[in-house]
Amino acid sequence: MTQELTDLRNYILEGRYDDALSLLDELEGMSKKAILQTIESFLIRLLVHLIKNQVEQRLTNSWAASIRDSILKIQSLNLKENQTSYYIKPEKWDSYLETAFEDAIFTGSVEVANGAYKPAQLMRIVDQTQIIIIANKLLNLTYSHAKKALRDAISEEFSQLPGGEDWNLSV
């Protein structure tokens, strides 16, 4: 990246504006790719915890924290610098979720029920459609809620998950 910035400076100083614009396009593409890869990492993390929740029919504080954190990070990463558009639009999540789901199955096979299932076994046990529906519902909250309100909305969704029936009850 440092070399690219040096080249950009030199292109501008030398009046090579076409080269500078081309390099800017390349840098923009690299930045977008890095953001999308980070979002995908958080998607996998989200899905692993939703898979664990579905298979084990419980919701631990740790899993809830990971789900919540993943959604909050995705919201932050997905919003472009202009604060008005997104890298991934609401209707475009399915392809990302399907790819991330396959990776989440492999990671989940190590974590679900203390590693009791191989990936192929876990794939047969898990209701992928249901996991994708829940993930989409959580992701859609990122478009309709500001940061503070999103935290509360996620907590409300926990009560809909297996083992989360008492999540929002006061003590």
Automatic annotation (TrEMBL):
InterPro entries: DUF29 (IPR002636)
Protein name: DUF29 domain-containing protein
